[in-house]
Amino acid sequence: MSAATHGAGKSKTLATWIAIIGGAFGLHRFYLHGARDIAGWLYPLPSLVGLYGVHRMQSLGQDDRLAWVLIPWLGLTLTAAMLSALVHALSADEKWNARYNLVGPASRSGWGTVIGAIVALMLGAGVLMATIAFSAQRFYEFQADASAASGR
């Protein structure tokens, strides 16, 4: 891809922090690739579906089974965004500049990028573990309800 496609002077630190803060809605993809990026437009829908699941659970309680299905979508999207932040933060400066800074000043890693990588790793791991635990708990509760209903 050419520098004209990406624009000039994309900061690795800024891309990392955009992925951490707004990655669930694909903002990091739009920063790097522009508004026509198809992959960037794949982030908002599962995030909104998951947020709707959180809203349903807050409104209807923990027994709402549709919320059980919807909430993990938010967790998976957040995990993917944190993984993107890690990939951005840990990419080599030379590789980053060859891809995103063919024209303009070169991007250099600094403490902002390092701290971003640490935050992304902590958030991503926490969200992934919470998503797995939530899904497993709801699955076993569903199995227990089905077993009790069948008289086993």
Feature tags:
152 residues, mainly alpha, 0% strand, elongated, disordered N terminus
Topology summary:
Blueprint: H1 3-6, H2 12-22, H3 27-33, H4 38-41, H5 44-60, H6 65-90, H7 93-100, H8 111-150
Helix pairs in contact: 2-3, 2-6, 2-8, 5-6, 6-8
- The secondary structure category is mainly alpha
Which ranges are low-confidence, i.e. pLDDT below 50, for 5 or more consecutive residues?
A: 1-6
In DSSP terms (H or I, runs of 4 or more residues), the helix count works out at 8
Number of domains: 1
Number of strands: 0
Shape summary = elongated
Mean pLDDT: 90
H/E series? HHHHHHHH
Rg result = 19 Å
- Name the beta content range: under 5%
Query: What share of the residues lie within helices?
Result: over 70%
Largest sheet: none
Gap from first CA to last CA: 61 Å
Summarize the structure in short.
The protein is mostly helical and 152 residues long.
